[in-house]
C-alpha cells in the first residue's frame, strides 16, 4: 500500500473499521506521519463526542417533587448584625434550602442541557461528515486514472508534490518535512491563475507532513504557491512565496 493511500485511512482507523493487515500498516505509518496522527486524534474525539451527546428527558415527577418540598421548608430568618449562626439546626436548614434551590435550578436547566447536547451532536456530525467527504475526495484525486504528479524541493530541505486530476478538476498537495510556521502564522496555499493568486486553503500549522485537498476547482490554474500568512489566512498573498510549483501538463 502506497503512502498516498495510507493518508486516506484516518477516518476508517478512528472508527476501528480497518482489517488487521491495513490497520497494522497504518499504525506503522502513524509513527512517522504527524499529520495523520493529528487527524486520527481529532476524528476519535469527534466520535467520542457523538457517543456522549445523547439528550435525556428528566422524569415528569421531578419538578412537582421539588416544588412540593420547597413549600415544607421554612425560610431561615437573617442573623442579627455582627452575629453568625452556628447552631446545627440553622446550618443544616440553610444548606438544605441551598440544596433545594440547586435542585430547582437543575430542573429548570434540563431543557437547556438537552438543547445544548443536541447542538453538540449536530456540530460533531457536521465535522465528521466534512472530514469524511474531504477524505473521499482526496482519495478520488489520488486514485484517478488521469492523476498526474509533479514534485519539488521546498525550503529547509522539505519535499512537496502536487497531484492533479483534470477529470475531477481537483488537486492535492503532499508535503514532507516542512518547518512549522512562526507562532500566529499559517501556510496558505494558492492557485496560480495566469499570474493571479487564488486562495486554495490552509495547511495544519502543527503538521510537518500533510496531505491537503486544495480548496476549489483547478480550472485553468497552471500551478500553485505557498505563502506564510496570519492565522486564519488572507484574501491575497502578503508575503513572498515559500514555494511555487507548476501543475503537471501530461
3D architecture notes:
The protein is of the alpha+beta class and 250 residues long. It is built from six helices and eight strands. The chain has a four-stranded antiparallel sheet with strand order 1-2-3-6. Strands 5-4-7-8 form a four-stranded antiparallel sheet, with no helix packed on it. A hairpin with a 4-residue loop joins strand 2 and strand 3. The chain starts with a helix and ends with a strand.
User: What gross morphology would you assign?
Assistant: globular
Strand order of the largest sheet: 1-2-3-6
User: How many strands, which pairing sense, and closed or not: the largest β-sheet?
Assistant: 4 strands, antiparallel
Tell me the Rg in angstroms.
28 Å
Structural class: alpha+beta
Instruction: Tell me the distance between the termini.
Output: 25 Å
Strands, total number: 8
Helix percent band: 40-55%
Continuous helix count: 6
Content of β-strand:
15-25%
Residue stretches low in confidence (pLDDT < 50, at least 5 long) are 83-89, 107-111
Mean pLDDT: 75
Q: What is the H/E order?
A: HHHHHHEEEEEEEE
